[in-house]
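Single-chain item
Fold in token form
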Amino acid sequence: MKAIILAGGEGTRLRPLTYTTPKPLIDVQGQTLTEHVFDILKKYNITDIILSLGYKAEKIKQHFSDGAKFRLKINYLIEEKPMGTAGPLVLMKQIGCEEKEDFIVINGDNLFALDLNKMLEFHISHDGIATIALTKVDDVTHYGIAKMDDDKIVDFIEKPAEENAPSNYANSGYYIFKPEIYKYIPDNDFVMFEKDVFPKLASDEKLYGFKSNAQWFDTGTFKRYEDVKNNWQGPK
């Protein structure tokens, strides 16, 4: 499978660190954050990577180059201006290079030690177009929380109060898509998975949630970044 890593954000909540170091290159236990994402993918023999970049793209490209030193094949999509979380799929539609087979999309600032083989088996066994890996969280008030009907995701409730949370499973930022996903990408220059794509998929009953209790971190704030540096154990 091919994997697209979303790595174009400015990392505003990690300033001043990200004024000089783009978030994909911040250090986690002696290697870059993005290299940890590579390690997750390589464990499952996924070596064909597209890095979707925006902020400080040239610095990131210089670091990773064609991926050979990481035992990967890396290509790049560059957003000249922010295009939203679905930006790479927008670009692929615009230039006519849509994926022809199922593929993975990962938020590059999230580390998740989930079993990608089991997620893929789950994805194939259901008739959906998109499968979102869901992670169990202790504090639902900080995340988009999935409302489920068996394995189907029918809605996401953004940062609900604890008493209103439909579950304690949040969007992990790890997705598997069928090529039909492009039909759900609007012909706009700014598209968000969370607002523009997933609600339509849920309405069509084509959105599924794969639950995993594996170790998961996001690096959105300095506190969470410290948690990652101190506690990330990597894929098992």
Observations:
- The first strand starts at residue 2 and ends at 6.
- The chain has one domain: 2-132+172-211+220-231.
